[in-house]
Task: structure prediction
Amino acid sequence: MPGGPRPRRAAPDDLISCESLRASEWLSAAYFLYLAVVCWFRPLRAARRLQIAGVSAVMLAALGLVVAFGSSTVRDWAPAFYVLVGYFLPGRFYERPHEGLERWLAAWDRRLLGDPRTRFRAWPRWLVAYLDVVYMGCFLMLPGGFAVLALAGHADAADRYWTMVAGADFSAFLSLTFVQTRPPWVLERPPDLRSVSVHRAALSFVQRGTIGANTFPSGHTAVSFAIAFALLPYVPAAGMAALLLSATIAVACIVGRYHYVIDVVTGVALACGVWAVAGF
Result:
């Protein structure tokens, strides 16, 4: 018989690759678990409560399957889906607006802008049209930002990118589980803007393609700035372009009356806070 030690039989633990969750995956799991639990303690209709709990359970199961069986590339892109569902699902908590908070938000708009409906009537047609177009397309920044990161050779920064994006998104929409307000476009007459047709198209998109509730802080603002902050260390040129787009989205939120001024200011502050916690 040939000499030498016999090869060691693989132990069961050697046959199982149990990769730990990434920070963005932990964050997503905690978010959906929170929604699944808190919906039972809010004054919701039974159908909505079951929808929230059911979708949250499906998302937790899907996340677990992706972690267990998904390739690295799948795990790099999957958070885009978690964030998308994480945007729409809290909208099911919307039952009754907090009118006192709405009045407070509107009062700050009048204090800072005067009459919000007429404040921007003198702005050029092309400018307000541009603002509405960018606002309608802001959701493209979510996958677009990571695509730029990956194409630039920084796919290894996926977890950092999605942790910042998900942190901003989930933090903004958690407020809907307890406090709901209506956006300005619901409560006000249409703003007096020169780009009437483009704004009408943008408003139609918002009415049909969003949850229809106001987020305080502004999720659009927080997420777009978080994307820019996540890109800056790796692709500075793209990060600066994203910052410009984020500023445009923030202005569009106010001009088009999609958000109150305070929503936008706190959205920027939220993105800065996420950057301070997860970006370094």
